[in-house]
From TrEMBL:
Residues 1-23 form the signal peptide. Pfam families: DUF1571, LysM. Residues 189-226 form the LysM domain. It comes from the Bacteria. Keywords: Signal. This is DUF1571 domain-containing protein. The keyword Signal applies. InterPro entries: DUF1571, LysM. The keyword Signal applies. It comes from Hymenobacter lapidiphilus.
Length: 284
């Protein structure tokens, strides 16, 4: 199954969030209700159009990008175009499992690339197979399958705000216990599997241990792994759609990543031709 996550290809909260309180008429909501509605909204997404502004820390430096994306979740299809003119199209069951990528640079030809490979994963935290909001659902998962369970219980509804004029609920997590821990698999495991066990995301495992995306860690080899996704996480949730408008993650080094979602259109049919390589307006 393809895991959905917030993602931007190759591509602080200050200034986005209004400090003014929402009108008194805004309905009160509990943490439990907010989390339930948030996860339901994400899990029930059939299609999504939006624009995303991303800031990601890569090798100690910050990279920013703006991307327009459209997604169909079952079967999984995604089209992305960033502000550098790079286009990506991935459709389940097509192109031998590769994504079509137009790099908008010499030699200006469309490439077929492994979406999990090092070329497409370079310079980004998440793969094209993880577009969407699924990582947030995973962070709030209370199934108890994690090596360090309990992180999901640190989220709290902390009040209301507005994000570019849209009323939003604020959900925060504070986890001062965040740190890197030693992990020695008893059998060979991929970095993706290890990341799922810790709920930490794969990128920092790769960065900290000098590994390539999808690398296999041999049995008995010790690596360093974050024990959670972050030390502080802020999610601003649209009060109408119950989908995130802002996601900001901090860790032991400061800001790790921030994603701002705008122009959200959820669960409106997207014509099949818009996920076709030859669609009018695409350079693919």
């Amino acid at each position: 199954m393809i895991q959905r996550s917030f993602y931007l290809p190759a591509l602080a909260l200050a200034g986005l969030l209004s400090s003014s309180a929402m009108p008194a008429a805004a309905p009160a909501i509990t943490t439990e209700t907010l989390i339930s509605r948030l996860t339901d909204a994400i899990d029930n997404l059939k299609t999504l159009r939006c624009n995303v502004r991303a800031q990601e820390r890569l090798a100690g430096k910050y990279q920013q990008a703006r991307t327009a994306m459209k997604m169909n979740f079952s079967p999984y299809k995604v089209y992305l175009r960033n502000d550098q003119g790079i286009e990506v199209l991935y459709v389940t069951g097509q192109n031998s499992g590769d994504a079509w990528v137009y790099p908008n640079s010499f030699p200006y030809v469309t490439l077929s690339l492994d979406p999990q490979g090092s070329i497409m994963r370079k310079g980004q935290h998440h793969s094209v197979l993880e577009a969407g909001y699924g990582t947030i659902s995973d962070l709030l998962d209370s199934s108890g399958e994690r090596i360090n369970p309990g992180f999901e219980k640190t989220f709290r509804y902390t009040g209301d705000t507005s994000v570019v004029g849209r009323p939003a609920y604020v959900l925060r997590s504070r986890y001062p216990q965040f740190r890197y821990v030693s992990y020695k698999p008893t059998k060979a495991e991929t970095t993706k599997t290890i990341a799922a066990k810790f709920g930490c995301g794969e990128y920092r495992i790769l960065e900290r241990n000098g590994l390539s995306p999808g690398a296999t860690v041999a049995a008995g080899k010790t690596i360093q792994v974050p024990n959670a996704y972050g030390s502080r996480i802020t999610i601003c949730i649209d009060q109408k759609l119950y989908l995130p408008l802002v996601v900001q993650v901090n860790d032991d080094k400061g800001l790790f990543e921030k994603f701002e979602f705008s122009d959200l259109v959820a669960n409106q049919p997207i014509p099949a031709p818009e996920f076709a390589k030859g669609f009018k307006g695409y350079k693919l």
